[in-house]
Amino acid sequence: MKKLILLVFCMCLAVVVTACSNEQTSSENANEVSMWVHTSNETAEGKAMQSLIDQFNEENEDGYTAKIEFIPRSGSGGGYEDKINAALTTDSLPDVLTLDGPNTAAYAEAGMIAPIGDYISNKDDLLPSIIQQGTYNDQLYAVGYSESGVGIFYNKQMLEEAGIDLATLPTVEEPWNWNEFEDLSETLVKEYNQPAIDMGLKDQSEWLMYAFTPFLWSQGGNIVSEDGTKATGVFNDENSVKTMSFIQGLVEKGYTTKTPVEKGFQTGKYPMMMTGSWTIAEMNSSYPDIEYGVMPYPTSPETNELVSPSGSWQYAMSATTDKEEAAGALIDFLTTTEALTKISLENSVLPAATSVIEEIREEVSPQMQVLINQNAKSAHARPVLPQYPKVSRTFQETISDLTYFEENQDIQKLLDDKASQIDKALQ
Amino acid sequence: MSTPVKRVIEYTFLILLASIFIFPMIWMIASSMKPEGDIYVDMGTIQSFFPSVNPSEWFQTYQDLFARFDVLKYVFNSVMYAVIVTAGSIVVNAMAGYAFAKFNFTGKKFLFGLLLSLLIVPMETLIITQFTVAHELGILNTRLAVVLPMLANMLFIYLFRNFFKAVPDEIIESVQLDGANYWTIFWKIILPMSKPAIATVGTLSFIASWNDYLWPLMVLTDTEKFPLQVAITNINSTPPVYTNQVMAILTLSTIPLIIVYIVAQKYLLQGLGGSGTGIK
Amino acid sequence: MKKFNSSMNLPAYLFLSPALVLMGLFLIIPALMAIYYAFTDYYLLTPDNKQFVGLANFIEIFNDPIFLESLKNIVLFVVCVIPIQIGAALGLALLINKNRKGNIFFKIAYFAPVVLSLVVISVLWLYLLNPSEGLINVLLEKVGIDPQPFLSSPKQALYTIVFVSAWQGAGYQMLIFLAGLQNIPGSVYEASKIDGANKWQNFIHITLPLLRPTTLLIMITTFIAAFKLIIQPMVMTQGGPMNSTMTPVYYIYQSGFSDRLIGYSSAMTVVFGVVIGLITIVQNKLSKGDD
C-alpha cells in the first residue's frame, strides 16, 4: 500500500515539477526576432532560409538578430497551421511567421498580422500577383517570397508521333484558345486511344481551385463579386456556365479523365499533363528519359486573354509583436533581390520580383523559362477573402461534381446551388 | 481425405489469405528498392512486387534518404516516446483495470459508465482544447507533453478489467492472508498472470504512439525532439515527392512495429502456461 | 489494510488516480470545453472574442444538408462494416489460434495492414482500384465482369471504403480475440472431448459463450471506431464524389480546422456524441448489458 501511495505521489510531483520548471521559451533578447516557418530545415527551402537568417544575424547594422524555428507541415498546410491556431489561443505567436497566400485575408481580418508595407523597401519590384495576394483592405500584410505556376506539359516524342509539328505549338507570346486545345487533344486521343491529358482531377483538393480558376478568369467570370459579399449573380452567370461547360466537355469527350493513372505523364503513358513548376525538378531527377516541353494556359476564345494561376507562401509580422522595428527589418532583408534570388535558385521555384527574373533567367531550364514568362505576364492571385477555405472547397466541389457529367448535365442548376452555398459562407 | 492432402489444402488457404493481407507491405518494400520511375512502369505487373533487377540500385534510395534527412535522430526519438508510452500505458491502465475488477468502491458503476461513454468522443476534434490544457500545465515543448495524453485509455482499462476478473478471488485471498498488501498483489500476482493482456495493450499502445503525428508536432517547437512521423509527413509533402524515398522511410518506420509485434505475440502464446489451447 | 472489513475506497481510488487524472486533463476537460464552445460563435482566429449565441449553432446543424448526408453515410457504413470486420477478425483469430509450423508467419501477415501506414494503403488501393487499368478490374475482366468505377462512383465509393476499412482493421480485433481465446482454459475443451463433442459444437457451446466479454468489448469499440471514420475518406476520396463518403467526424474536422468555425464544429461534435451515445445505450440494452 505504501508503495502505491508513493508511486501516485511521485507521479503528481513529476507533473507539478515540470509545470513549474518550464515556461514559454520566447527569446529574452529584445533585439532577437523569433520566426516560424512551415518547412523543415532538411528541405532545400529550409536550408536556404537558414542561411539567409545566418546572413541577417551577421550583417544587420542595427544589431537585430533572428531565431528561426522549422515546423514541417503536412500535405495541405495542416500541422503548421494547426500549430499557429493553437499558439493564437495561448497568445504565443512568434514575431515573424510564414503563411500561405489564401490565408492573408483571414489572418489580417482577425488582427493576427500587422501591415508591413512601410518596412518593405523593394515593394515596386515585386510582381503584381505577389502584391495582389498579400493585400487586404488596401494594405500590404504579407510578402510572398517566391511564385508558383502551372502549364501544359507535353511529351515531345508522343506529339511528334501523332503528326504534330512542335514548331506550331503555342507560346506565352502567342497563346492558344480552348478550341485549339480541344483540337490537339482530339488528335492525341485518336492516336493513342486514351485520355490526352492528366489535369489532376483525381483529388478534391486545393489544386482544383488553384489550377481551374484561371479558366474562369480568362472567360471574364469570377467566383464572388468585387466587394467579396456575394456569389449569386457572379458564380452562376453566363461566363461561369460557359467555362464549366468547357471543363465538363473535356471529361465527357474523353480528352481528360477524373481517374488518371498515377504518374501517367512521367512514365510516357499520357502525352500531356497540366501541372506546376515542381514537376520540372521531378522530371530531371527521376524521369530523365522523357523529353518534354511546356505550353501556356489555353485561353477563352471570346477574350483570348492569358490567365495563369499563382500563389505562394509569404512572410508576415505578427500583430502582437513588440519588436516591430526588428521584425520589419528582418522581412525587409528577406525580400531584397539578393535574398529572393537565393530562395528561387536553391528551391527551384519561380521568382517573386522583376529584378529576380533578370537575375536567374539565364540559369534556369527552358521549361522553367516558359513558366516564369507566363507568370510575369498573366499571373492571377486567388481571391483574398477571410472565408477563403469554404469558398475554395465549394469551388473544388463544383469542379469535382462537373466531372460526373451524367449526374450533372444541368450546369446552371449546379452553379446556382454552389453559389448559394458560397453566399451562406460569406454572411 | 488423407492427412497430408488436408494439410496441403489448409496451408494453401492460409497462404492465399496471407497474401491478401501482406501484399501492400511487399509492394512497399520492393518499391523502396528501385528507382522511382520503375515503380510506376512496373505497376500492374508481377515485377511491382520485386526490387529492381539491378541489385546495385537496391539501397540507393536509402542512401539518398539518409543524405537528405537525419533519419536516425527521428528514429531514436520515436523509439523513446513509444517505449515510455507503452510502459506507462500498461501500468496506468492495469492499475485502473485492477480497481474496477477487484474492488467495491463508492461510485464504481457511475465512474465506469462515464469513462466508457468517453470512448465516443472523437479525439480528432479536441486537439485545440487539449493544446490549451497542455499550455496551462506548462509542459509545452517538453517530451512529457508528447507522452502524457497517450497513457490513459479506457479501451485498455476495459481490457485489463476483463482479464483481472478472470483471476480467481481465492488466489488473492490466500496471499492476502499471508500479509501481502494490494500493491504487492497487483504487482506480483495479478500482472504476471496477465501476459496476454499486457502484450495486447503494449502492442496497441506502441503502435498508437509510433504512428502519432499531429500531437507531437503541436506541442513541440524544437526540431531535435520531433518523432519519425513528422519526418515521414515532411518527406511525403515536400515537392518533389519521390515515391521510392517515401516507401523507404515507411519501410524503416514499419520494421520496429513488426519487431514489437513478433516479440509480443510470443507472450500472447505463452500467456496462460500449459492450460491454453495451442501450447507447445 | 490487511482485511476486507476496512473501506476499499482509498486503495481503489489510489489505483485509479493516475488514469483519472490523465483522462481528466486530456479528455474530460477538453470535452467540457467543446460543449461550452458549442453555444458560442468561437472563430478559430479570434479566440478572445467569443459570443454566447444560444442554440443558433444547433438550429443550423439541422438545416445543413452536408451534415445530414454525412449522418446517413455513416449509418450505412457502420451497418455494413461491423459484421464484415468482426466476422473476419474472429475467423482469423480462430485460424491462427493453433499450433502449427509457420504459424508465426500467418500471425504477422494477418496483422500487417494494421501497422502499415495509411499512406501506403491508400496509394496502393487507389491504384488497384483504378477504373481504367487497376489490377482488380483486370481480374474482373478476365472472369467476364465489366470494369467497375469503385471509388470514383457516388454509388460504389462508400462500399469500397467499407471493404478497405475491414481489410485494414480486422487484424486489430483479431489480436484482441486472440487474447480472449488464449484465456479459455484448455481443460474445458478436454472435458467436452470426453463428452464426444465435435469442433463445431465446441465452437458454438464453449468458445462463443466464453468469448462473450471479449466479443462485447470488440462490438462496442469497433462500433464506436467505425462511427468515427475519418482517415480513409480523407485520404482516399476527400469525402467525394458528391459527398457520398463524407462522414460526420470528417465534416466536423473540416468545419473546425479548415473553415475555422470552432463553435459550429463543437456543436456538431455534441450532436454527434449524443447520437452515438443513444445508439450505444440501445445496443447495450439489446445485448442485455454486461455483468
How does this model look, in words?
The complex is a heterotrimer of chains A (427), B (280) and C (291). Chain A is of the alpha/beta class and 427 residues long. Chain A contains 16 helices and 14 strands. Chain A has two domains: 33-148 and 311-380, Periplasmic binding protein-like II (D-Maltodextrin-Binding Protein, domain 2); 150-309 and 387-426, 3-Layer(aba) Sandwich (D-Maltodextrin-Binding Protein, domain 2), CATH 3.40.190. Chain A is 45% helix and 12% strand. In chain A, strands 1, 2, 3, 4, 7 and 13 form a six-stranded mixed β-sheet that branches. In chain A, β5 and β6 form a beta hairpin. In chain A, α2 packs antiparallel against α12 (337-347). Chain B has 280 residues and is mainly alpha-helical. In chain C, α4 (103-115) crosses α7 (157-182), α7 runs antiparallel to α10 and α12 (248-258) packs antiparallel against α13 (262-286). Chain C is an all-alpha fold and 291 residues long. Chain C has one domain (53-286): MetI-like fold. Mean pLDDT of chain C is 85; it is low at 1-5. The interface between B and C is large, with 95 and 91 residues.
SSE layout and pairing:
The complex is a heterotrimer of chains A (427), B (280) and C (291).
Chain A: H1 2-21, E1 32-37, H2 44-59, E2 65-70, H3 80-89, E3 96-100, H4 104-109, E4 113-114, H5 128-134, E5 135-136, E6 139-140, E7 142-144, E8 150-155, H6 156-161, H7 178-192, E9 197-198, H8 206-219, H9 238-252, E10 272-276, H10 278-286, E11 292-295, E12 308-309, E13 313-318, H11 324-334, H12 337-347, H13 354-360, H14 366-378, E14 379-380, H15 388-402, H16 411-426
Parallel strand pairs in A: 1-2, 1-3, 9-10, 12-14
Antiparallel strand pairs in A: 3-13, 4-13, 5-6, 7-13, 8-10, 8-11
Chain B: H1 3-31, H2 36-42, H3 60-68, H4 71-102, H5 108-117, H6 127-137, H7 143-147, H8 154-165, H9 169-177, H10 182-190, H11 195-211, H12 214-219, H13 228-237, H14 243-270
Chain C: H1 9-37, H2 56-61, H3 65-96, H4 103-115, H5 118-128, H6 135-142, H7 157-182, H8 186-194, H9 199-210, H10 212-227, H11 231-236, H12 248-258, H13 262-286
Helix pairs in contact in C: 1-13, 3-7, 3-10, 4-7, 7-10, 12-13
